[in-house]
Amino acid sequence: MELKRWIIRGGVVGLLVLGIGGRLLMRVIAHREHRPVMEFTIPGTLTVLFAGTVAGLAAGLIYYVLRRFVRLSWMRTIGFVVICGLISWRGVHGLLLVPQLMFMALALAFMAIIDVMGRQLPVANTTSRTVV
Fold first, then answer.
1. Dihedral sign, CA of 36, 41, 44, 50?
2. Domain ranges of the chain
3. 74: which residues sit within 8 A by CB, 6+ positions away?
4. Cα–Cα dist 100/24, whole Å
5. At what angle do helices 42-69 and 2-13 cross, to 10 degrees?
6. Residue 130 has what DSSP assignment?
7. Is the distance from CB of 28 to CB of 102 less than 8 angstroms?
8. Which of 3, 20, 38, 108 has its CA 20 to 30 A from that of 14?
9. Which pLDDT tens digit goes with each residue over 44-80?
10. What are residue 34's phi and psi, to 5 degrees?
11. Global pTM?
12. Each residue of 71-94: pLDDT tens digit?
């Protein structure tokens, strides 16, 4: 049950932060680079929202696995940031420097939200079993 909750949490936060936030950030970058103003397109927006949600689902799964097997919260945080940071970096490495940094900042904000959510919830103790 906890796996399902973490995947859903990741998906919802991914939709809001990575999907909607990513789409707005794309608009900011286009404006900053003096590109012609174009309207938001429905297919383009849906693609970005879908990608943000899927990335969030994957991050929720990653956090669940780390939460299950890494007991020290600071090590779990470092592992989560390293894994998700490398995946994020792979997605933005072809961009110019400033857009890279802007998207990485957005990804770090997402990771911070997921980690704070994980720190506020108790970790289920899966190693001890009571035999009656």
1. positive
2. 2-120
3. none
4. 15
5. 140
6. -
7. yes
8. 38
9. 999 999 999 999 999 999 999 999 999 999 999 999 9
10. 55, 40
11. 0.86
12. 999 999 999 999 999 999 999 999
